[in-house]
Write a structure and sequence with these properties.
Number of strands: 0
Radius of gyration: 17 Å
Helix content: over 70%
Number of helices: 6
Shape: elongated
Order of helices and strands: HHHHHH
Largest sheet: none
Structural class: mainly alpha
Number of domains: 1
């Protein structure tokens, strides 16, 4: 079970990163080009935030079934002294929660923005922060594609 969930989590990270890059590029180009905010722009933001949310749900399931996490909870002192275990138990989780928070806060601020320029600017900043947090704490040292 843990292997399947980990593989799914691994695959969905690419959706998250691609959707994030797409949302940030659209927002930045719209901001720079003084474009009119469109349903496609809103859809790019929504896709990124939904991808983050999906990844969160898969991550929670993975956290519940992971033997590494179980082992870590068995001896928290040893887990916190072991960098790789601490990373998955605390650091990765915390920063991904920050990324999700940035995405959701940004999406709400975009909806409330008063002008197209403000929407693009807000989306660029908040989606950029969410993407930076997510990309910065992806475990790049793990295989780039799942190992079945």
């Amino acid at each position: 079970m843990a292997t399947i969930v980990l593989a799914t989590h691994n695959i969905v990270r690419w959706l998250v990163l691609a959707a994030g890059v797409w949302a940030v590029i659209r927002a930045w180009r719209g901001w720079r080009g003084r474009s009119v905010w469109s349903a496609s722009d809103a859809g790019a933001v929504r896709l990124f935030v939904n991808a983050l949310s999906l990844q969160f749900v898969i991550g929670v399931i993975l956290y519940a079934v992971s033997p590494l996490i179980r082992q870590g909870f068995g001896d928290m002192g040893a887990a916190m002294r072991t960098a790789s275990v601490r990373y998955f138990m605390v650091e990765h989780v915390a920063m991904m929660l920050v990324a999700i928070a940035f995405g959701h806060i940004g999406a709400a601020k975009v909806r409330k923005a008063g002008s197209d320029s403000a929407r693009f600017q807000t989306a660029t900043i908040w989606m950029g922060l969410a993407l930076a947090a997510a990309a910065g704490f992806v475990p790049w040292f793990r295989p780039l594609l799942p190992q079945f």
